[in-house]
């Protein structure tokens, strides 16, 4: 393994941060590293909101379900899928522009995810820690109003960035055989059963809080209800009509 692969395999979510600011020049370089990610047809359908005001950060803590590290991390970024800029650029050529396509929603969501992961890797290479905040989608309309996001722009997730103040264990991943398939899809039951045992042992022995659970049990609450059922109506109202 080279150093890049070792770095990728050492990822942990960091939720406790030192009170030490990230230099602005470094933060800009992280964003530039994010921009170097692949982008569909060079559309670059993303915007990143750097939330620096304490009051806004406090409000986002509440909107994301009380995740206090949204406020305590050195920096907090909100990653937005942004079709406004490319749509307006295309419209400016005089073309008859079609908006609201499902493909546009997918392209923008994939684009911003690739950018965010590049930033995460760049940050970790500099000794920083990160934590993705999917709770941004708990109240996407309120977040949009707070950050003044226009039509055709929606908040996909947030990211806490800062210098780690703890050293959590690396959470195991599924066996590679479960996700890396040859020529066609294959059943995963055997791998899932093995992974349940792996996760049970992990939860029993990890440094920061033990519990009795496994992978399947941790998934159950995510699928026994209609999770974030507001998202479809919100996206349609944002101009992502999914036509």
From TrEMBL:
EC number: 1.5.1.38
InterPro entries named among the record's database cross-references: Flavin_OxRdtase_Frp, Nitroreductase, Nitroreductase-like
Record key words, sorted: Flavoprotein, FMN, NADP, Oxidoreductase
Signal sequence coordinates: none
CDD domains assigned to the protein according to its UniProt record, in alphabetical order: NfsA-like
Top enzyme category: oxidoreductase
GO molecular function: FMN reductase (NADPH) activity
Domain Nitroreductase: 9-163
Family: Belongs to the flavin oxidoreductase frp family.
Name of the protein this chain belongs to: Oxygen-insensitive NADPH nitroreductase
UniProt organism field: Vreelandella andesensis
């Amino acid at each position: 393994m080279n150093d890049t692969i070792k770095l990728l395999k050492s990822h942990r979510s960091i939720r406790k941060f030192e009170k030490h600011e990230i230099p602005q020049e470094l933060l800009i370089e992280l964003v530039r590293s994010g921009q170097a990610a692949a982008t569909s047809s060079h559309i670059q359908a993303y915007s990143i909101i750097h939330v620096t005001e304490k009051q806004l950060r406090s409000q986002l803590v509440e909107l994301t379900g009380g995740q206090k590290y949204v406020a305590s991390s050195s920096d907090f970024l909100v990653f937005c899928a942004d079709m406004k800029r490319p749509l307006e650029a295309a419209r400016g050529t005089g073309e008859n522009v079609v908006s609201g396509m499902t493909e546009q929603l997918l392209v923008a969501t994939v684009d911003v995810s690739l950018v965010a992961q590049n930033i995460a890797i760049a940050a970790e290479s500099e000794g920083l820690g990160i934590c993705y905040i999917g709770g941004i989608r708990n109240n996407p309309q309120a977040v949009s109003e707070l950050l003044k996001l226009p039509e055709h722009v929606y908040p996909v997730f947030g990211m806490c960035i800062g210098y780690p103040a703890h050293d959590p264990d690396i959470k195991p991943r599924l066996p590679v055989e479960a996700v890396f398939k040859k020529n066609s899809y294959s059943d995963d039951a055997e791998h899932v059963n093995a992974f349940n045992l792996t996760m049970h042992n992990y939860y029993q022995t990890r440094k920061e809080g033990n519990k009795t659970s496994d992978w399947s049990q941790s998934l159950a609450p995510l699928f026994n209800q209609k999770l974030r059922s507001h998202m479809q109506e919100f996206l349609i109202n944002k101009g992502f009509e999914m036509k």
